[in-house]
Amino acid sequence: MKANSRASEAATAKTAWVEFTRREWEVFRLRAGGCTSREAGLRLGISTSTANFHITRVYHKLGAGSITQAVRARPDVLTDVPANDGLD
Q1: Structural domains counted in the chain
Q2: What is the pLDDT of residues 70-79, one digit of tens each?
Q3: CB under 8 Å to 55, separation ≥6 — which residues?
């Protein structure tokens, strides 16, 4: 096993217990998928500043400073996408 893989698994294990509100998870999922906060806000019917608030809370809960760090801490955000989430 590579050192990076072990580090990633350790980070995921440390943050697996972190709970998010439904809206935090929705914004996190969209941002992890490549949306900007503005795009996430438009898709969810919230303002850009509210989307930014939610992603900032996610970063805080995960001890992350960027979306990349947050996704590394919780890679399950990339697989937790409903088949029909009503966003398209």
Answers
A1: 1
A2: 999 999 998 8
A3: 24, 27, 28, 31, 37, 40, 67, 70
